[in-house]
Design goal:
The structure holds two protein chains of two kinds. Chain A is α/β, with parallel strands linked by helices. Chain A contains seven helices and seven strands. The longest helix of chain A is centred in the middle third of the chain and has 10 residues, at about 90-100. The mean pLDDT of chain A is about 95. Chain B starts with a helix and ends in an 8-residue tail after the last helix. Chain B is of the alpha/beta class. Chain B has 13 helices and 18 strands. Chain B has helices spanning about 5-15, 40-50, 75-90, 105-110, 140-150, 175-185, 210-215, 230-240, 300-305, 305-315, 335-345, 345-355, 405-410; strands spanning about 25-30, 30-35, 60-65, 95, 120, 135-140, 150-155, 160-165, 195-200, 225, 260-265, 270-275, 280-285, 295-300, 325-330, 355, 380, 395-400. In chain B, helix 2 (about 40-50) packs across helix 5 (about 140-150) and helix 10 packs across helix 12. The chains are: A alpha/beta, B alpha/beta. Chains A and B meet through helix 4 and helix 5 of A and helix 2, helix 3 and helix 5 of B.
């Protein structure tokens, strides 16, 4: 599994209220949520994002509410991967559970700039900044999380 | 090596003798919770994966509290979907308009959560029930769906920060000031992935309402959970209320903590978190008398909509008038609290002061309805988050504070020290 796309860069503590403001939580429609993704922090995001792009941010990405609408909106907007120094724990869990790839890598998060072209190899955790030629090593997922992602989400891993 | 209180509860629910920080476990759940925003997403997943039923009809709680009474047609449709689901699967703890309350005030009040429980809720403030000595944490809708089907969830066992409380709080200093002080000290990711375990002789002097408020905001320091030991106050609260027998867990004497933070309760002052992070704290002494002019006050939410919160507000608003330029919105967290406020005459006090008193709802806290802020407006709120755009316009501002600070500020129209 790989990702290859252009970077949308953000700072510290990007919270779920700016990823998808609560005024849009009266729907569970993935496309409607994607239409308002990042609206309160970057009103041009929806206009600029292309399928396969990557979000890079600094510490504590996804802090705040437990709304799964946040990773859903990001995934449905076309983003293939989020790289951050650290993630808020509920967002981290939700991303795995819905199959949005996320990687923690402080060095990459600090170095990579808005608009850079970046490649990610999820099996090895290697992040390559094609624009600068620099590579970074993130921790790949442990086996039980790989199992959830390879089966396309948590609910496909349980006996019903 | 000893275990923390959280680790002992998790070990017991995973059927293990011991667990250690970092270990991945699967645990049995006592309660699985969802609300009118997160449950529809969970129900869609539940149905998509072809589940035949829920693990236990008595152990699921569905509370219609965020956009209720329905704020618009879409909100009405979401509640209808959850209502139909509750009916189809015979969910015993379904709370709709008329018996609902703000979920994290309602579940303890109704005795649905008990000491020693392992609880997940598709709402980040599910960590509130740590006040009762339960392991309780917020998750997303997929975890909720999985929990409703299997009665189980996976966890990474957290390490912990020990928060040792000493002394007792002064008049008009409350649980809210304790947690804002702590978040100001360690930051909004200061407890990321970890437990906050509150201990020390100071715990005994804290009421259940104070403990519920403190545990409620553990997530605002990034914590997985916040937890209090079970003592006489807890057991008195649970008696005749909890549907299941309390199970008491205690941290081992040799439990290992990442760090210990000592808070002297006597030294705390009313504290305010400035926009746009709960860690941007100042005591009221650091705020000038007429420095921060406000447009709105909100007293309520899962953080501060309980009986003691309204009592404090009533005490400070009695015989006073809300400042002319301020809209003061008071929201009891449950119907029981509402009724008690009526009986004690507080509602009369609020209305005579020029405040409004609403039916229970999460409403304004998350910018849903019942008190949205316009461009450039400022609010003092007893809620839990002051992020950009949380309560309305992206250029509005939220100052988080206790009910005492909020009520005193409503009268002057500026952020005000309630102890003066």
């Amino acid at each position: 599994m790989n990702a290859h796309g252009m970077v949308h860069k953000y700072g510290d503590n990007v919270d779920t209220d700016v990823i998808i403001p609560a005024r849009y939580l009266n729907t569970a429609s993935h496309s409607e949520l994607a239409a308002h993704c990042m609206e309160d922090i970057d009103k041009d995001f929806v206009k600029n994002v292309k399928q396969g792009d990557i979000i890079v941010a600094n510490k504590n990405f996804g802090r705040g509410s437990s709304r799964e609408h946040a990773p859903i909106a990001i995934k449905a907007s076309g983003i293939a991967c989020v790289i951050a120094s650290t993630f808020a724990r509920i967002f981290y869990r939700n991303s795995i559970n819905i199959g949005l790839a996320i990687l923690e890598c402080d060095e990459a998060a600090k170095d990579i700039r808005n608009g850079d072209e970046v490649k990610v190899d999820f099996d090895t955790g290697v992040i390559e900044n094609v624009t600068t030629g620099k590579t970074y090593q993130a921790e790949p997922f442990p086996p039980f999380i790989q199992n959830i992602i390879s089966k396309g989400g948590l609910l496909n891993t349980i006996g019903k | 090596m000893g275990m923390t209180m959280t680790q002992k509860i998790l070990a017991a629910h995973a059927g293990l003798d011991t667990v250690k920080a970092g270990q991945l476990i699967e645990a049995d759940l006592d309660i699985v919770l969802g609300n009118d925003i997160t449950s529809p997403v969970a129900i869609n997943e539940f149905e998509r994966c072809g589940a035949k039923g829920v693990f236990n009809t008595e152990r699921i709680a569905l509370v219609m509290d965020h956009f209720t009474p329905n704020k618009d047609i879409k909100a009405a449709e979401q509640c209808r979907q959850v209502r139909n689901f509750a009916d189809k699967y015979d969910i015993q703890n379904f709370f709709d308009v008329g018996n609902m309350g703000v979920e994290h005030a309602l579940l303890p009040e109704q005795g649905i959560v008990s000491p020693g429980d392992a609880i997940i809720g598709a709402d980040s403030h599910t960590c509130t029930y740590g006040a009762l000595g339960a392991f309780s944490t917020g998750v997303g809708s997929t975890d909720m769906a999985c929990g409703m089907i299997t009665g189980r969830a996976w966890f990474k066992v957290p390490s912990a920060i020990k928060v040792e409380l000493k002394g007792r709080l002064q008049k008009y200093v409350s649980g809210k000031d304790v947690i804002l002080h702590l978040i100001g000290q360690i930051g909004v990711d200061g407890a990321l992935y970890r437990s906050l375990e509150f201990t020390g002789e100071g715990v005994a002097s804290l009421s259940m309402d104070d403990r519920l408020c403190i545990a409620n905001m553990a997530i605002e320091a990034g914590a997985k959970n916040g937890i209090f030991p079970v003592d006489e106050t807890t057991l008195a609260y649970c008696k005749g209320r909890c549907k299941r027998e309390p199970k008491i867990f205690q941290a081992d004497a040799d439990a290992v903590y990442d760090e210990t933070i000592v808070i002297d309760l006597c030294a705390l002052r009313p504290t305010v978190a400035f926009p746009h992070l709960p860690e941007n704290t100042k005591t009221v002494d650091q705020v000038g008398d007429r420095e921060i002019k406000i447009d709105q006050v909100v007293i309520g939410s899962c953080t501060n909509g309980r009986l003691e919160d309204l009592e404090t507000a009533a005490e400070l608003l009695k015989g006073k008038k809300v400042a002319k330029h301020v809209r003061c919105i008071i929201i009891p967290a449950t119907q029981t609290i509402y009724l008690e406020a009526v009986r004690r005459g507080w509602v009369e006090t609020f209305i005579e002061a020029g405040a409004v008193f609403s039916t229970p709802t999460c409403g304004p806290c998350l910018g849903g309805h019942m008190g949205i802020l316009g461009k450039g407006e400022r609010a003092v709120a007893t809620t839990n988050r002051n992020f950009v755009g949380r309560m309305g316009h992206v250029e509005s501002e939220i100052y988080l504070a206790s009910p005492a600070v909020a009520a005193a500020s409503a009268v002057t129209g500026y952020i005000t020290d309630p102890t003066k």
